[in-house]
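Hi R.,

Here's the chain you asked about this morning:
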Amino acid sequence: MNSYNLADPIFRCSEDYPDSPAIVFNGQVCSYKELATRGSQIAKYLKQSPNWTIEINTTPRVGILASRNIDACVGLIGACWAGATYIPINPKLPADRILTIFSMCNLTALIVDDEGVKLLTEQVHKNCPNTIIYSGKNPEFKNTYSSIRAGSINTLPDDQIIVPPTPMSKDKVAYIIFTSGTTGTPKGVMVSVGSARQYISTIKEWLDLKESDKVLETCELSFDFSVHNMFSTWKAGASLHILPATMVMNAVKFVQNSELTVWNSVPSLAGMLSQMKILQPKSLQNLRVTVFGGEQLPESTVVSWKAAAPNSKIFNLYGPTEATVFCMSQEIKESIPVTEGRHVVSIGCALPHNEAAILDEQGQRLGNNMQGELAIAGSQLADGYLGMERLTEERFPVIDGKRWYLTGDLAFKDLSGNFHCLGRIDNQIKINGYRIELEEVDAHLRVVCGVDMVCSVALLQADGTAKGIVSFVAHEADEGRIIAALKAKLPSYMVPNQIISLKEMPYNPSGKVNRHALRQILEYRNI
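And here is the predicted structure, written out as tokens:
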């Protein structure tokens, strides 16, 4: 079948086992029947709105200005149900960033939850589409906010009839997720229905997700890891348990109390729990599947995790947003497959329907153990960047008749066929002519400091060139001892000029270490 809707599994589950939980959040349970009913209500309202037209070559775009909760998921599913492209927008973004996304997307409608409604200031409201839908259940929300919004935000009629999701052809855009752009303008990655369907089907089978699973959600909708968490769960007919942002430090207790069976998170969360002694041996015995992704996975984090979750399979998944969430997988069994000299886990091999290669600067394939840029091909590739045709052509070149995505990651393939990611090519710097990979400095820092939460950034001169390295450690650090230990392991030009201790690392909305915030610390301290 060429037509599909991301909401199709929810519709199926609402008929097969309507009372089974689809989402659990803060003690509230949303069954598959309720999710389907509310999603269908939103879809019906959207399709009746004045500016809703579906032409052959266009798809309506619906913004989801909502945090991670049941109402946010309901709004997202409603947009999918209607046959629209959904565009998640994090409510924690600055107003200017939200307005930029609005201007780039030409939204047909906007769906908001309680957090999203709060952001509809006069300036934001003027730039909103005409149709704004409130996906929550608070009957008092209209009286809570200023009169400029009165009458312009719509609550939904109580319609219990569930109509099937609108079929979408595989070439339609399922969602657009915005990532940071090097020019300061966010990049909207457009992922087709066909690519999303391929990933969801592949990963559900790869991880052997079951109807009985209880799955952890740790991500905001604007981080594409959420696509994995939500849709692979609902494809299996399982339940998604959303970890409130205020309970991150209690994640282990949350998993225990909810008797979860599947863990999904960036490695930083596990590293932080381990460092704070929250992750204890056998504390997560009910887990049967663990998925780490989004950043490099330190070996030490895996050691702690294997002790805490002895009954869990562990997968290190790799993938850029442009290849639809994850496209490579490394299962960790008895021994830990580590990248030599880096103390991080390899990224394994391409998932089914994907292909990986190491290319040089001319786009030629490199042999085993030769470092180059990691490129991805296959049926999961995104369509490209919204309104950025030139960048799309640059990053998605056709080589020997096949379309590839150039990831910007430095990597190599070993003799056994496993791939190893060495970090971002743009995290390479030159000092006095020497090329340095900051991730390599971090790898040695972890060993010397005995903690996972470390990050190195370039110390820049006025002309923007690097003159040194500053390393941050989320722990009380003895700078003299650390630098002396690094001098015994690294060439002098790779040894940080300074070590800065932090109580905790700054993280971006995706849960990854925020390098921009670290550079701002340097500016604030005039370093």
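One quick note: The two ends are 59 Å apart (CA to CA).

Cheers,
M.
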